[in-house]
Structure to design on (258 residues):
């Protein structure tokens, strides 16, 4: 198939003061083996040298800006408002793609037109880029998401732009669970699929990462989605929240030891 006949994939990177990792992220997008990528970088007015990193690659970016915004969710929305692709994704400025991620995701979505979103496996890496674990990816669906069985590494997800147009944007009131909220909305309308045995991204865990610092806040926001959509207190997602409140300190201790 000629490259011009392939779907355009729009990828957004939201960033703020992540100069230490941003270049690795950018290179992982630009180094994909898929020929039709529209790459957009939305920086929140960084003061740590991030802009110099972005300018180094600006000729290969579809758009970039560095200006004060309202945070990560706002930055992603701004990026997708600029996007013209048939398939969308975002990769945070401390995470990275594996080289075949985009091509494999596009191939699956082209072969399965009924599927709205696809995702795969993901490694945990530390500040030095060393693999320290594996994300517990599993097949999930609307009902399982509502029960708190997420199992989707955001770094690996690719979804059809039509669902963004119909169901977006991300809810700006969410700081952490904006992706979960979007997945729930998408999964209610069409299938989402997990591709086992394919590792598409690296999820960086470090001392200032949102997952490490604000995990409990994320689960509180997931409960907001649960109750908003008519969920009961006596459900697995609520039990998982209170369980994580107990084991959360052990997780942070493990990350610090890595």
């Amino acid at each position: 198939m000629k490259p011009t006949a392939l779907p355009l994939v729009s990828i957004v990177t939201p960033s703020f003061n992540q100069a230490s990792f941003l270049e690795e992220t950018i290179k992982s997008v630009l180094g994909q083996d898929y020929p039709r990528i529209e790459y957009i970088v939305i920086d929140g007015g960084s003061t740590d040298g991030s802009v110099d990193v972005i300018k180094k690659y600006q000729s290969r970016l579809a758009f970039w800006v560095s200006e004060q915004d309202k945070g990560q969710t706002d930055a992603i929305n701004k990026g997708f408002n600029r996007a013209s692709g048939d398939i969308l994704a975002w990769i945070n400025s401390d995470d990275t793609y594996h080289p075949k991620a985009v091509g494999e995701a596009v191939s699956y979505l082209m072969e399965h037109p009924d599927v709205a979103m696809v995702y795969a496996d993901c490694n945990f890496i530390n500040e030095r880029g060393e693999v320290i674990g594996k994300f517990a990816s599993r097949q999930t669906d609307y009902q399982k998401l509502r029960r708190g069985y997420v199992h989707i590494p955001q770094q690996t997800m690719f979804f059809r732009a039509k669902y963004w147009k119909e169901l977006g944007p991300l809810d700006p009131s969410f700081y952490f669970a904006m992706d979960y909220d979007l997945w729930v909305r998408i999964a209610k309308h069409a299938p989402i699929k997990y591709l086992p045995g394919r590792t598409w991204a690296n999820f960086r865990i470090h001392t200032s990462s949102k997952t490490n610092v604000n995990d409990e806040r994320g689960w509180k926001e997931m409960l907001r989605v649960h109750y908003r959509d008519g969920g009961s207190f006596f459900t697995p997602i609520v039990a998982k929240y209170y369980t994580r409140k107990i084991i959360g300190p052990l997780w942070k201790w493990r990350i610090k030891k890595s």
